[in-house]
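Submission sheet (multi-component)
Chains listed below:
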Amino acid sequence: MTHSLVLLVVIPLIATPVCILLHKRLLIWPVVFTVSWITFYIACDLMLAVRDGGEIYYYLGSWAAPWGIEYRLDSLNALVAVIVSGVNALVISFARASIFQEIPEDRIYLFYCAYLLNLAGLLGVTVTGDVFNMFVFIEISSLSSYAMISLGKHRQALLAAYRYLIMGTIGATFILIGIGLLYAVTGTLNIPDLHTRLSAMETSRTVITAGAFLTVGITLKFALFPLHSWLPNAYTYAPSVVSAFLAGTTTKVFIYVLLRFLFSIFGTGNMFDIVSLDKVLMICALLAIYSGSISAIYQNNIKKMLAYSSIAQIGYIVLGISISSVAGLTAGIIHLFNHALMKTALFLCVACIVYRTGKVSLKSLGGIGKAMPWTMAAFVVAGLSMIGVPLTVGFISKWYLILSALNQEAWWLALAILTGSLITIIYVWRVVEAAWFRTPASELRSGKIREAPLSMLVPLWILVIANIYFGVDTGITAQMARQSAELLMGMP
Amino acid sequence: MEYLTGQYNYWVVIILMMIGFYIVISHGNLVKKLIGLNIFQVSVFILYISMAYVRGGTAPIDAAEYSLYASPLPHVLILTAIVVGVATTSLGLALVVRIYRAFGTIEESQLSHVEEDD
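Outcome: structure written.
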């Protein structure tokens, strides 16, 4: 039995107290950096092992499932684990200078502790095969992200963190109620075991109620349209690096949790055919796409604009899921991966701008493209990717989404997706226009503002190149996504 | 009547849940919101504990004189959930302290005024 599956969670968890013991600001970053790249290596290694549709099990304490807690890896959560650890490794490589500047010196080591806990929590949610264990990891990652958001420089960060805490805890408690009801019906907490027992019995009202609580709780956690009110402020006022990390990982992991519950536990027969949850999700997704994109147009704060655009992009992912065919799920899962690439890149660009200028409003950034050409060029490429221009990952997502819509002969859905992309052009263009086509402000012309340091540009550009690479060579992502989709739809 | 008394625990759970949830939504005071959140969470703990209880059942001890067992698993799970709840409350209260220092108030209505000025 290989131990690497459990090491994925254990390594960041053990590194956390090590960080507290080290306490010295110069020593901590190398430790966190090493831990991050080790977890990324393990995740990639595991993904290659399950690439051909295999599964990896790990019984904690050698207690066989369903009695003990089981960690379980298939192609879906292998992909999510790679997304989380990959985004994390790049963000941490980027973070050093930005963190020094944005967080008070005596709190830096505490920040890195919260960060590692968050990573451990997210990876734990991803690999665990036990729903209660999942709840505990959800709370570990959520609690640490509230703490990280509250470290933002602006005093509004405190309010944003508080509101996220209230909403997040309500969501987590709903998840807990759902898990409790499921346990009352089946007497088990193991995911495959839950599925076998649920499909053997008739759908009772308790099961439906559990599904309702779980869906509301999980969608609250990843900010699907009517439940998204916590997200814009949380992303806007968090330290720049934290926004990049949360935008790239947290929402992705919770969408994965939704997929697990809806498909691997309840099965489409229960939730989609009886309650027609797919229709509800589709309406929410479309509203998310339009409300998110339109709100993004009116924002003057770039971070807030990107936060609203995240809501819209989450809409696209959920739209793919709600089509509930193999093609739709494939599109959703591909976009899950692709959105992590583009949104993290965009938030890292903003982090570069904040590092050099300290400003995030569109007005103060007129002509910044001339002072920081590499940063803004990265913004343009990642922005094009979000619009869905060919040769970028965004195009692949949109392509699969539209294809799956046309497969269902829902041409109006394809049209809605295209219109959504058109609105994306408007808000991306607003930044590009301000950065490249306006005359620089006097502060910028005096040459005080320089290009971001290399330690930030290299991780940023690795992400940007990944945006292009996975837009040209879709071999790995498409294969993993299709395999996961077939697995979720219960096809061999 | 049997329907009402037989499910007594569950009625309490639902009433507590609604009280807690209502406090979170309706009250403007940040500390009161946390109190509501706590009541909401506690109701779920009671739900789990009631679920596991079997009338006349004992702990699962393998001995000749006992045959009816209550499941200990939900109780163990709820111990974990209580710890999570305590952590959430303490983090929430810490945030409220810092909000009070930064804004000088913990009333939602006054905070929204400050927000417009920022």
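Remark: The radius of gyration of chain B is 20 Å.
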